Amino acid sequence: MTSVGGKKVFYPSGCKEVNEELGKDELVRRLKLLARAFQDMGQDDNEQYSGLALYLASDYFMDHQSKDVRLLVACCIADVFRIFAPDAPYSEPAQLKEIFLFLIKQLRGLEDPDAPSFKRYFYLLENLAWVKSFNICIELEDSQEIFCSLFQLMFSIISEKHSNKVRNFILDMMSPLITEADAVSQELLDIILINIIEPYKTQKRVAYQLAKDLLIGTSNAIEPFIQTFFNNALMLGKTSESEMSDRLYDLIYELNQISPNVLLSVLPQLEFKLKSNVESERKKVTKLLAKMFADQGSALADQNKALWNCFLGRFNDISILVRQKCVSQSQFFLQYHPELFKDIVEQLKVRQHDPEETVRMEVVNVILTVAKNDFTVCTEELLSFIRERTLDKKFQIRQAALLGLGQLYKRFVLAEEYDKVNVDKISWVKDKVFHAYYQSNNEDRLLVERVFNTCLVQYNAEVSERMKRLYLLYATIDDHAVRAFHEMLKNKNLVKVMVSQLIEAIEVNLEGEKSIPLNRRLAAISKTLPEPNKATDHMKKFAVLVEDDKRMRQFVKTLVGPDCNSKKAQDLVKEILKKLGGPGPGQHNLFYNTIKSLMERIAPVMFDAAAIEMLVKHVDETVRGLGIITDGIDAAAEKGVRLLVALSSVYPHYFKTEETFELLLSFLKHDDEAVADLTIQIFINVGKRLQSEHPNIYTVLLPILQRSAKLGNPKQSKHAIKCISIVCQKKEAILSQVFEHIKKSLTPESANFITSIVALGHVAKLCPVQFAADTKSIVSKTIVKDLLMMDRTSGPDTTESWYSEHHVTEETMAKLQAMKMLVRWLEGLQNNANNSGTSTLRLLYTVIIHEGDLMEKGMINKPELARLRLQAGCCMLKLAEYKCYGDLITREQFQALALLMNDSCYHVRLNFALKLNKGLIMLRLPLEYMSIFSLAANDPLKERKSQIKNFLQTNISKRRDYIKQNLSTGVRVFQFMPEYSIPFAIHLLAHDPDLQSHEHVEILKNIKECLWFIIEPLISKSEDCNYSFFRKMLENIKQCKDAQDPEDEVTNMKLYAVCDMALGLLVSKATNITLTDSNLEPVLPTKCFVKQAKGYMNTKMYVPKELVTEGIKRKGVHDSILAPSEPEIVACPGPVVNPLPYTPREKIPKPTRTKKVKKDQSEHDVDMESHVKSPKEKTRRPRSKKENIDSQEDNQSSGVAKKRGRKGAKKENTNDQKKLDSDWDSSAESHDLNAQFSSSDIEENSEQEQTECVPKRQGRHPKQTNSNSSSTNSSPRRVRNSDNVTKVKQINGASKKTSNTESPAKNSPKVVSSGKSRKRSAPASSSESSPAKKTRNTRAAPRKQDSSESEPSSPVSMESSLVKSSPRKKPTSSPAASRKTLTRSKLHSESESEGNKTPVKGRKGTATKQLKIEQFSTKATNRNVRRAKTLANGTSDGDSQERESPRATSASRRGRGRRK
C-alpha cells in the first residue's frame, strides 16, 4: 500500500490502485472509476481518502502527457475540494498554487463545446464554480497571479458557442474572487477592463458581455479599485502601472455605459481635465463627455449640472478641434435629448458664425443629418442656420448648405404623400436656392443650376409632371428669385450659343477655306466655368479632342442644336463624358469635372418642344380657370404666361407647333390685360417666321396687334408695335395705319393719349425716315409745347417726397412718357439733324435744374417733381450711350445730371444710381460717367453708400477684365481704364457750387471724402494699382487749365486744390503699393482740361494747410510733387458698347509726333488766352446765404448791387418761355429752321464765318453750349437740399460779361433767363442797362413791384450792354462766360424757397464762337422743393411733413448775390 506525506493511500471500494507502472489506457480506465467514485462521494467519512487526494496531486499525474489523464485527475481533485470543504487536504501554499494553476490549465478544454470530453470539462467548471474552490486562493500570497491566469483564460475561451449555463458558471466562479478579495490588482483590472473597449468589444462580443456582467455584479466591490486607478492615471499621471493608461477616456465611457455608479467619484476629475491647458487632453475629455451626455437614455446632464455647464463652455474653446468635436456630437443631443435642445441650439447659433470654416461646415452637416433622420426634431430656428450658411464666404459651405436644402425640398415637397407642416417649414428653400444665383462666382451659379435640375424640378421626371413642378415652382417664388431664374436661363443659353459658335469655327477651320482663331472663343467659354484660368487649359484640350474626333464633334453639335430633345440630350452627355474616360485621378479628374460642368450648362435636359407644349397646356388650364395646379396662388395665370415669356426668349425654336400658337392666341383674348400683354411679348420672341410658316396664325394675330397698338394700354401698344415690326414682312404699311390713328389721338382729351405717346415713340424709332416730317411737327407742337411746357392739373396735396405710381396724375404720366418718346425718336434718328438732339438735351437739362418743374408754375407736387427730374436724368443717360448725342452734352449739363446722385429724394438717388450703373456695367456709357459715383459719399444712408461702392468695384473689375481680354484696344485704353475716371471726378468736384474758393476748408473736406470714395476701390488691390501712372496723371492735371473756364484764376485754383487733395490721398492712404515702371503715359480729356503755355510749371500747393496730409515714406518716392512732364490731352471717348469701343474723335498721335501735337495745342492756348477776359472782368459766383450775410459790409462798401427785383425775374421768365417755344416751333416746311429752333441757331450759323482766325478747342462739338453747372454743399456729409436759405440756380455765370464777335446789326436777339436756385440768389444784369456803358459791375436798382406788372426786357439791349462793357477791342467768347451755378441743398435745414426760373437754350462754347449769357433771378413760389434732412431713423427728409406758406416765403426770401 502506497503512502504519501505519512498518510496511507486508500481507494474507494471498486477502485483499483493507480500508479506509474500502469499503461495509459489502463490508467485512464482506473481513473475514470476513481473519478466516478469521488463524484458519488459525500462530505462524510472522507478523512481516509486524504492520502489519495495528496497522491493524485503529485507531479506524475498533473504533468502526465495524456490530456485524458490530466482531465480525470483534475476532476478528482475538484471533487476532493468539494468533499473536504471547507478544509482541503492541501495545506502547503506552494502546493495549492500548483494545483490551481493545474486546474486552470485543464479548464482550457472548455474552449470547444463540440469536443467528446467537453462534458467532463463542464463538470470540472461546474464543480469549481459550485464549491467556489478558487476562494481558497484568496489567502495565498500569489492569489492575484492565479486569478489573473484564471480570468485571462476565461475571457480568451468564452465564445458564442457556449451556452448561457457555461457563461453563468464562469461568472459564478469569477465574481467571488473580486467581491470576497481584499484587493484587486491592477493587472487583474486590466484583464477585465480591456474586454469592454474597442477592438475587443466588437471582436469578442461574448467576452465583452462576460466582463460587463462581471462589472455589474461586482460594482460595489470593484469601485474603490477603479477609482484608485483613475485617480492615479488622471490626477497623478501614473501611467506606467497599467496597460490601459492610453485608453482612459474610452474606458470611462464604457464603464459609464455598463455601470455608472462605478464612476461617481471619477466625474469630478473630468471637470478638472476639461479646463486643462493641454489641447489634446481637452479634446479627449470633450469627446468623452459629449458621448456620455448624448447617449440615448443618459441622465448625466441632469445628475451633474456643473459638469454639463463646463462641457457647454467647450463650444467656445480656443481649439478648433475641440469646438468641432462639440458641434459634431450635437446631433445626438438634438435627436435623443429634447431637454437639452435649447442649450445646444444656443451654442450652434454662435458656432455657425465661427471664424473657422471647418466648424461652420460641421454645423451645416449636423443640422442636415438631424433633418434627414428626424425632420420633426429640426425646428425652423435650426433651418435658419442653414439658410444663413448659404451666404457663407466659403464656397464649400455654401455648396453643402444649398445641396442639403435641395435634398430636403426634394424629399418632403416633391414626395407623392407629403406632410403640409413639413412643406411649410421649408417653403422658403426654393427662393433661397435662386437667391444664391446673385453670387458672382461661376461655382455658385453652376450649383444653383444643378440643384434646380436635380432637386427643385428633377429633369428626369415625366414631362407632364416635370412641367407641373416647374409651373408651381415659378408661381410661388419671390420676385428676386424670379429675376435669378430668368438670369439663369439667359446664362445657360449664352454658354450654349458660345459652344455652338466654337463648333462652327472648328468645322470652318477643318474645311480649310479660312482660319478662325479659337482662343478668344475658348476664353469666353472658360469664363463661365469654375476656375476660369484652369478651365482655359481644359477647354483647349477639349477643343483638340472635338477637332480630332468627328463622332464627338457631332455629339456636341447635336447637343447644342435646335432639334435636341431632353431624352436625347441626356444620352449625348453620357456618351461625351464616356469618351473622356470617366472621372480619374489627378489632372484628368479636373479636366473631366470641367467638361462635365460645361455639359450641365448646355444640355437642354429640362426643356424641349414637348415640354414647352405641355407647359402651355398647363398655363391654358389656369388661364381658363380649370387648372388645379395653382389653386390658391395669386395671379397664377399671369405668372404662368410670364414663365412662357422667359422661356420664349431663350428657347424660341421650341415654340413651333400649331397647337401651341392657337393656345397663345386664346391668351390674347383674356380679360386680364397683363396676360394679353405678356402673350404679345411671346410672339415678339417666337414670331420671326410666323408669317411664312404659320399663315393662319398670322392672319388671326395681325388684327389683334393693330387693335392693341391703337387702343391698348401703353405696355400693350409698345409691345404690339414691336411685334408688328418682327412678325410682318412689310411692317411699314401696317405701322403707317397705326401712325395715322396716333395723330388723331394725340390730344389730352383723348382716352388713349398716353398710349398714343408711347406708340409714337416706338414707331418713330422703328421707322425714323418714313415718318420723319410728321414726327418732327408732332414733337414740336404737341409733345413739347402742348404737353411738356403746359401744366394743366395739380397733383394731390402731400408732403411726401415720393409715392407709388398709381397715385401719379395722368398729366405727369404723359410727361414722363413724352420724355421717353423724345429719346426713342432720337434713337431712331441717330444724328443731330436740325439740332434735335441739342434741343432735347437742353430741355431735359432744364427739367433737372428746375427740379422737375419745367415752366415753374408751382402746380406740380413734390413726388411728381421727383419723378419728372428722375425721368429727365435717365433720358439723358440713355442719350449719352449714343456717341452722336453724348458729344452734345456740355459740362454744365453733365454736372447738373450728376447732382441727381445727391437728390433730396431717396428714390431718385436710388433709381438714378441703378440706371447709371446699368449703362456703365454694359460698357455703353462713357467712362466719364463713372465719376458721378464719387458724389455718393454725400449720401446720408450707409447702405446706399455701400451699394454704390459695390457698383464702383464691379465696374472697375469689368473694365480691367475687358482690357486683359482685348489687348487689341491699343491706344484706346483710356476709354476702358477705370483710372481715367479720376480726372473727370476731379473736374466734377472742382465745380462743386458750394466751393467758392480753393481755401474753403469745410467744402474741401467733403470733396476729400468724395475723392477717397472713388479712389479707394482703384488702389485697394496693389496688383492692380500702378502708383507711378496714377500719380503722374494727377500731377499732369496741375499743369493744365480748366477747359470750362480756362482764364478764370479762381476756377483753376479750385481745380488745383482738388487735385492736390487727390495727390495727398494717393500718397498717404495707398498702402502696399508696388512701384513699377510703366510705358503707358497718362492722357487727359479735352472736355475738362486745356494746356498751359509752353514751359509752364505749376509746383504750388493750393490746398489749405489744414488739409495737407503727410505722405507715407516709400523707397524711391519723394513726398514732394515730382517734376511734371507736359501732359497729353486727347478728345474724350464716346460711349463704349461691347465688344468694340468707339474710336476717339481725334487719333492719338504716335510717340514720334506727340511733341508736334502738343506744340500746336500750346499755340492754340496762347491764342485763346489773348482773346479772353481777365478774371477781374468776370463776376464771382454768389455765395451761400450765410456767407453773403457775413460779407455784407464788403459788398456795400464796394457798391455792388445785391438784390434783384421780382419784376426782373418775371421778365426773364417770360423770355425763357419764349425761348423754349422757339426751340420746338415747327412749320409744315422743315427747311425753315429759323422758325423751328431758337435764335441761337441762326447766331451759330453767322458765327461760322469768323472761325478762321480763332483755333478750335479739341473735343468740342460746334453746336454745344458751354454752361457751367456744378453743385455741392458745405456740410461734410450731406444730400444737397434746399433749407434755411433761398435757393438760386445761377445758370451760365449770371452777370458775367462777354464780348460779341458779330456786329450789333447781325446779332440775333439774346434771351436772358431767370431761374430758381437751390440755395443762393443769382445776381442778374439789369434789363435797362445802357448799351453805351462800359463800366463793369453796374446793375439796375432793385424793383419791388409785383412780377405780374413787369414788362419783358429787351434781350437785344441787354446783350448789347454786355458786349460793349468789355474793355477789349478784339473780344472772343470765354467758356466761363455762360457759367451756370447749381447748388445742392444742405442737411438739417428747415425752410423752403424757390425762384422762378426760365431756362435759356445754350451752345457748348468753343474758342471760335460767340457765347450767350444766361441769367436766372429768383422768385419764391408755393412749390415744395427738394431737401434730404437726415432723420433719426436714418431716412432722408424727403418724407418730411414741413411745408411753408408760399406767400410768406415769396415775400421775405430773396437771395443775395456777390459780384467781383
Word description of this protein:
- By secondary structure, the chain is mainly alpha-helical.
- The strands form three sheets. A two-stranded antiparallel sheet has the order 1-2. The chain has a two-stranded antiparallel ribbon with strand order 3-5.
- The radius of gyration is 48 Å and the shape is elongated.
In short:
The protein has 1460 residues and is mainly alpha-helical.
Keywords:
1460 residues, mainly alpha, two-stranded antiparallel sheet, 54% helix, elongated
Question: In terms of topology, how is this protein built?
Answer:
Layout: E1 3-4, E2 7-8, H1 24-40, H2 50-56, H3 59-62, H4 67-83, H5 93-107, H6 118-131, H7 143-157, H8 164-179, H9 186-193, H10 200-203, H11 205-217, H12 219-235, H13 248-258, H14 267-274, H15 279-294, H16 300-303, H17 305-313, H18 320-328, H19 330-336, H20 341-351, H21 357-373, H22 380-389, H23 395-412, H24 420-425, H25 429-435, H26 442-456, H27 463-476, H28 479-511, H29 519-526, H30 532-548, H31 550-559, H32 566-579, H33 587-602, H34 609-623, H35 636-650, H36 658-668, H37 673-686, H38 690-693, H39 695-711, H40 714-727, H41 731-745, H42 753-766, H43 772-788, H44 810-829, H45 836-849, H46 862-880, H47 883-886, H48 891-898, H49 906-921, H50 942-965, H51 981-990, H52 1001-1019, H53 1027-1037, E3 1040-1042, H54 1049-1069, E4 1083-1085, E5 1089-1091, E6 1128-1130, H55 1154-1169, H56 1185-1190, H57 1192-1197, H58 1206-1224, H59 1233-1236, H60 1239-1247, H61 1355-1364, H62 1446-1452
Parallel strand pairs: 4-6
Antiparallel strand pairs: 1-2, 3-5
Helix pairs in contact: 1-4, 4-5, 4-6, 5-7, 6-8, 7-9, 8-11, 13-15, 14-17, 15-18, 15-19, 18-21, 19-21, 21-22, 21-23, 23-25, 23-26, 25-28, 27-34, 28-29, 28-35, 29-30, 30-31, 30-33, 31-32, 34-35, 34-36, 35-37, 36-37, 36-39, 37-40, 39-40, 40-41, 40-42, 41-42, 42-44, 43-44, 43-58, 44-45, 44-46, ...
